[in-house]
Automatic annotation (TrEMBL):
It comes from Dipteronia dyeriana. The keyword Transferase does not apply. The lineage of its organism: Eukaryota, Viridiplantae, Streptophyta, Embryophyta, Tracheophyta. GO terms for molecular function: peroxidase activity. It comes from the Eukaryota. Residues 117-279 form the Thioredoxin domain. Belongs to the glutathione peroxidase family. InterPro entries: Glutathione_peroxidase, GPX_AS, GPX_CS, Thioredoxin-like_sf, Thioredoxin_domain. This is Glutathione peroxidase.
Amino acid sequence: MTRSRFVEFSHSSLYLSVFDDKLFGTAKTRQSLAHTRAMASLSMPFSATFCGFTRSKKNPACAFSSFDSSWISMASSIKSSLGSSKSAFMRHGFVLQASTFTGFFSKARSFGVYARAATEKTVHDFTVKDIDGKDVPLNKFKGKALLIVNVASRCGLTSSNYSELSHIYEKYKPQGFEILAFPCNQFGGQEPGSNPEIKQFACTRFKAEFPIFDKVDVNGPNTAPVYQFLKSSAGGFLGDLIKWNFEKFLVDKNGKVVERYPPTTSPFQIEKDIQKLLTA
């Protein structure tokens, strides 16, 4: 019987628990269960093929030894923000899925417009506020490929993501590419600053020239309308919830979501998909 491995964070250690497929029945049932579990923990289907183990207090034989650098940064960020409780997971429903070694995430579909987007609505139908509080109709980006990202200034993924985002923005902007960055403080309180502070941080430290918008909620009852649209257009494998800082949505020139990437996918890993949109 096939087994699925789930990685969970506690406040003291990273540990591995194993669940038997037989116990959970159908794939649909397991998916529903995993989504429920997400409200209290970090759950991640992990391929046993790539499990290198070290020791931990919870499971002396089971922990990780061979992560990529982005996962380590993310793990450190999560653990430091949680302190001695799992409340952040309960509030935000943090879920991560993984089944490949290089990206830790499997794509459930080939590159293209998400089938779930049954509505004719597009990103261009929304108006948002920029970092200075001014209304910005997103239809100004018609005809351009967009990468929409929820950003944070104090995350373990901040430095690498901001640096790579700035690089690809400079490289592809002349070809009709834009990055739309939305600060969010919902994940570990890692974007606590005011809008002026966020702007100064991004533009001074990382020379970010792409548009930065007003701080928003991306999960919960106060979710920004544009993020409600993005999530409904491209749900994650274990549900629609945004998982952590720096989750990414790639949008085509017509305002349709064509791909969704988990937080540990670096901007450089998205370049080929960006190129496809720009040459389409």
